[in-house]
Amino acid sequence: MSGWSPELSERFPEQYETLRGMLRQRLVSRQLGEHIKKPPARVCDVGGGAGHQAIPLARLGYEVTILDPSEEMLEKARDSLASEDGPVRERVRMVCEPGEEASRVLKGETFDAVLCHGVLMYLEDPGPLIRAMGEVSRPGAIVSILTKNADALAMRPALEGRYRDALEAFDSNRDSGRLGVLTRAHTVGEISGMLAKSNVETIRWYGVRVFADHLGEEHPGPDFADMLEAEWEAGRRDPYRGVGRMIHLVGRKK
Q1: Which of 130, 128, 68, 133 has the alpha carbon at shortest distance from 97?
Q2: CB 65 within 8 A of CB 80
Q3: In the chain, what are the domains?
Q4: Considering only Cβ atoms within 10 Å of each terminal Cβ, which end of the chain, N or C, has fewer?
Q5: Beta carbons of 103 and 136 less than 8 angstroms apart
Q6: Which of 36-68 are b and which e, b meaning 16 or more Cβ less than 10 Å from the residue's Cβ?
Q7: Which phi and psi (to 5°) does residue 173 adopt?
Q8: What residues does 113 pair with on adjacent strands?
Q9: What confidence tens digit (pLDDT) does each residue in 189-206 have?
């Protein structure tokens, strides 16, 4: 994973406590819920890190495998899982290996849903990881990818009043986020094309954080419920979804 470090493993989970992080988590979970098979079903969370997606799915009855190359991130998942009920803990398995090696390290297992949220932006070439996701997806499986939106990189700096940065972002597919790491962004067409090579058809895509991305490290206020609903509607409608900070693609393995 390009640009990733143990220091980032320490700082990354803190992002989920901010307004932006909570919006991202709630929106992606709701969007995924529109498509994923009801439990019992098996899920592989590639790059699932601290378990922010995996543990809520386990609470719902899914059998979840977190596949992540960072032992530091998996340790955070273990800490979070320790406070869960026994049946929830039993439904989560953790494997410390690169996602690109999914088929080999999981010994050919296949899953009803394969997730990869917030990972591709740290990779110079996401192709091998997307191919690996296709390999562990059984026919009819849902493949869910969340990544940074290359078509909207100018939005955040412009709304923050950083107009020189906004001008530079128009023709770029790279961006330095809140963690200070230079990451890549992708278009819907690029990700859909890579999925198609793995026999995965994109069936829906959403924008994530259309209205609130520029609010920095703010924490949720009393209007959070209304903000969440506004973001939910914007994320599934044109033209709003196209300017979301992130894009969430959901595909189905043919």
Answers
A1: 68
A2: no
A3: 6-150+182-253 (3.40.50.150)
A4: C
A5: yes
A6: beeeebbbbbbbbbbbbbbbebbeeebbbbbbb
A7: -120, 20
A8: 43, 142
A9: 999 999 999 999 999 999
